[in-house]
C-alpha cells in the first residue's frame, strides 16, 4: 500500500543509519506524549489495531496519509504540508510502500471525534438538514452524561469507515528503511505564511 508519512529529519536520519525507527512515546514530538488528555484514545487505537492483527512489538505507531484531501494514491501537496507544520521545523515527506495487512486505515474527521471523546457521525447524520441535525445534537447532549458517553463510545468504530473520502489516515507499527521509496525535505511555514 502506498502511504506518505511526515517526519522530522532526526527520524529520517535514524531510519537511514539504523535501518528502522522505533517510536519513543516519551519523546516530546511523539503523539502519545504531546497531550495527556489523548492517552486514552491512543490506548483505544492500539487495542483496535491489535484486534485486527497488527502487532506493535514495541516499535510504536507510525502515522501516515493514505488519502489526502480526497486524492488517494497521490502524494500530499508539500505546500499544504508546509503550512500545516510548525514554522521553522525541518521535516520530510517519505513515500512508503507498506504491506496492506500491516496497515490500519482511518477517516481523519472521525478520528478527531474519537480523539476528543465525542460521538462519531454516520453518513446519514452528516447528510441531515441543518435544523434536523441540530435537534438531533440537542437530544444527544440532553441525555444523562453516562448514557451520552456510552452512546459516544458505541459510535467510535466509525473511525474505520473510510468510504466517505476526504482525508484518510493510516497507522502501522515500525518504520523500516526498505519501506522508503522517495523523500522530499521541507521546512514548516506555519499557518498564515505565504509560499
Structure commentary:
The strands form 3 sheets. This protein has a 4-stranded antiparallel beta sheet. A 3-stranded antiparallel beta sheet has the order 1-5-9. It has a two-stranded antiparallel sheet with strand order 2-8. It is built from 8 helices and 9 strands. The longest helix is centred in the first third of the chain and has 13 residues, at 39-51. The chain has a domain at 2-109 and 162-187: ADP-ribosylation fold. It has 195 residues and is an alpha+beta fold. It has helices at 9-18, 31-34, 39-51, 78-83, 108-116, 123-126, 130-142, 145-155; strands spanning 2-8, 20-21, 61-68, 71-72, 90-97, 104-107, 168-173, 175-176, 180-187.
Characterize the largest beta sheet: strand count, sense, and whether it forms a barrel: 4 strands, antiparallel
Low-confidence spans: none
Strand order of the largest sheet: 4-3-7-6
Order of helices and strands: EHEHHEEHEEHHHHEEE
Report the C-alpha radius of gyration, rounded: 18 Å
Structural class: alpha+beta
Number of helices: 8
CATH C-level of the domain at 2-109 and 162-187: Alpha Beta
Distance between the termini: 31 Å
**What's the CATH architecture name of the domain at 2-109 and 162-187?**
Alpha-Beta Barrel
Query: Could you state the CATH homologous superfamily of the domain at 2-109 and 162-187?
Result: Protein of unknown function DUF952
Binned strand content: 15-25%
Dominant shape: globular
Task: Please report the total strand number as a whole number.
Answer: 9
For this structure, the CATH topology of the domain at 2-109 and 162-187 is: ADP-ribosylation fold
Mean pLDDT, nearest integer?
Answer: 88
Percentage of residues assigned to helices = 25-40%
Amino acid at each position: 500500500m502506498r502511504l506518505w508519512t511526515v517526519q522530522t529529519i532526526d527520524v529520517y536520519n535514524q531510519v537511514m543509519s539504523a535501518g528502522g525507527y522505533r517510536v519513543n512515546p516519551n519523546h516530546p514530538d511523539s503523539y502519545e506524549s504531546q497531550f495527556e488528555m489523548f492517552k486514552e484514545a491512543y490506548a483505544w487505537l492500539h487495542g483496535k489495531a491489535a484486534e485486527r492483527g497488527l502487532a506493535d512489538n514495541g516499535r510504536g505507531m507510525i502515522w501516515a496519509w493514505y488519502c489526502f484531501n480526497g486524492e488517494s494514491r497521490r502524494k500530499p501537496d508539500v505546500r499544504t504540508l508546509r503550512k500545516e507544520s510548525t514554522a521553522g521545523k525541518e521535516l520530510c515527506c517519505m513515500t512508503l510502500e507498506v504491506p496492506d495487512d500491516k496497515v490500519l486505515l482511518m477517516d481523519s474527521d472521525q478520528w478527531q471525534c474519537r480523539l476528543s471523546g465525542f460521538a462519531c457521525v454516520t453518513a446519514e447524520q452528516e447528510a441531515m438538514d441543518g435544523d434536523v441535525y441540530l435537534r438531533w445534537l440537542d437530544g444527544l447532549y440532553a441525555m444523562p452524561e453516562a448514557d451520552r458517553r456510552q452512546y459516544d463510545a458505541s459510535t467510535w468504530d466509525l473511525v474505520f469507515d473510510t468510504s466517505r473520502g476526504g482525508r484518510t489516515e493510516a497507522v502501522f507499527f515500525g518504520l523500516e528503511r526498505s519501506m522508503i521509496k522517495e523523500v522530499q525535505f521541507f521546512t514548516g511555514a506555519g499557518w498564515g505564511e505565504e509560499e
